[in-house]
Design goal:
Blueprint lengths: L5 E5 L4 H15 L4 E5 L11 H14 L4 E4 L11 H14 L3 E5 L6 H16 L5 H7 L4 H9 L7 E5 L9 E4 L4 H9 L2 H4 L12 H19 L4 E5 L18
Helix pairs in contact: 1-7, 2-7, 3-4, 3-6, 5-6
Bound molecules: zinc ion.
């Protein structure tokens, strides 16, 4: 398989759609190959069986023209930054060899989101260690993962950015998704078991119209910060590097 350009790692199916789906679609439209790794399969969800959610995730990936999507078997509601889990994720990072890694923002209300952030970062670090396969072997890791790690050359993503939509933090930058907003919303609505208007669990799940209003309000808020209609927010830990002051976007006054 040719290397991927951008890999988004998320705790739950539909997290990527909610936090960076528009960006993934926009990057695919630019010719970049994108991927989503869901850490869990959603077995703790109030609605929808695991198989149904898997079909919905495939449909959402098709709408966002994602080149690759897979879900690991980490227990839903119990995402831990454990060595075992780091090895599972490091294997995927080596398989895909993406230049960019999108992780959830590191502070979150949902413990799975915060854990996914730390797990993704540390897995990306481990994936660059040449002797990882040997170290994992002595730690009693699943044999198929060890074999894969030995077979695959070390790799670290060049750039890590954090999707911060769920977090109340000021983004470092936003991506204009005005053109991708409708498709991104359609990808979210592909999770029919979660979002379709229905009686079961209706006290927990707002109706579709309310969801649209909320999703649009968030995208408008981040869009306003940069003078565009809709945007998705990201945080990067590194400073920005500028070549040409005249080409810096976003009006100051
Ligand atoms: Zn989630």
């Amino acid at each position: 398989m040719p290397p991927l350009d951008i890999l988004a790692i998320a705790a739950h199916r539909d997290d990527a759609e909610q936090t960076c789906g528009g960006t993934l679609l926009k990057m695919a439209e630019r010719g970049h190959r994108t991927a989503i790794l869901d850490l869990t399969r959603g077995e703790m969800g109030t609605r929808g069986a695991v198989e149904e959610r898997a079909r919905e995730a495939d449909e959402a990936a098709r709408i966002l023209t994602v080149s690759w999507r897979r879900a690991l078997d980490i227990p839903d509601g119990h995402v831990e930054n454990s060595y075992n889990n780091r090895i599972k994720v490091a294997r995927v990072i080596r398989e895909l060899r993406s230049r960019v890694l999108i992780l959830p923002y590191w502070q979150a209300r949902h413990p799975d989101h915060a854990a996914a952030s730390a797990l993704g970062y540390e897995a990306a670090f481990l994936a660059g260690l040449a002797k990882l396969g040997e170290t994992a072997a002595t730690a009693g890791i699943v044999t198929s993962d060890i074999e894969a790690l030995r077979r695959l050359p070390p790799h670290r993503p060049y750039k890590i950015v954090y999707a911060s939509l769920y977090a109340d933090v000021r983004p470092t930058f936003v991506v204009d998704i005005s053109e991708q907003f409708e498709a991104r919303f359609a990808a979210l609505m592909a999770y029919r078991s979660q979002y379709q208007d229905q009686q079961e669990g209706s006290s927990v799940f707002p109706r579709q119209a309310e969801i649209r209003e909320r999703v649009a309000a968030m995208a408008s808020f981040y869009g306003l910060l940069a003078g565009v209609r809709y945007a998705e927010p990201f945080v990067q830990k590194e400073v920005g590097l500028v070549d040409d002051l005249v080409a810096i976007p976003v009006q100051s006054i």
